[in-house]
Amino acid sequence: xxxxxxxxxxxxxxRVWLTAxxxxxxxxxxxxxxxxxxEGETRAFDESVLLMLRDASDVGLPIGPAWLTKVVTDITALxxxxxxSLLTSLVVVYLILRRSYRTAIFVTVSILGGxxxxxxxxxxxxxxxxxxxxxxxxxxxxxxxxxxxxxxxxTYLTLGALLSRLEDRRxxxxxxxxxxxxxxxxxxxSRIYLGVHYPTDVLGGWAAGTVWACGSWFAARWFLGR
Length: 226
Description:
Blueprint: H1 4-9, H2 13-38, H3 43-52, E1 54-55, E2 58-62, H4 66-77, H5 81-97, H6 101-125, H7 147-165, H8 170-193, H9 199-223
Antiparallel strand pairs: 1-2
Helix pairs in contact: 2-9, 4-8, 5-6, 5-7, 6-7, 6-9, 7-8, 7-9, 8-9
């Protein structure tokens, strides 16, 4: 016979507790990591990883075949403002055509809000870009947190979670979030390989983006209903 507590945490409620736990862990990790970065404690680790991904005789050359750099450059573009803006716009149009107006509004506000937070964090922390290796793509803004890592986490995780709500089949409900996680991971790793971010920049971006996406999930339950 099931207890009251078991019934309470069963069904959809376990997802609430799991999401809250993930958000809390990533938020704690983000604050701890930011503190370490501001004190300069991560510099040796960051630079060693970047150097490990370069030719020992010439730090301007990445390890691996020449085509790998092209592939990684294409992957990193998936986390750029242009691609994310286009993707978000297409999803919003799809939701409008589907007459899911509240969801369309929520997606727009959630993602734009996350992008604003990312910009504010960069300005507030003001960490310079890595100088120990040559950048393989052009960058102009500050380093922490990685905008590509954070914005891809915010955009892909938020869209993945919300699109999964529209599906009745269990397989597709899991498919969208898994794709979102995969894209977020490879985009973040591409920034390290290209030498434009320290590993801790990417970790911070993932953490901040995940916390925002979890918060968006909770807000969606209130604003959109279960």
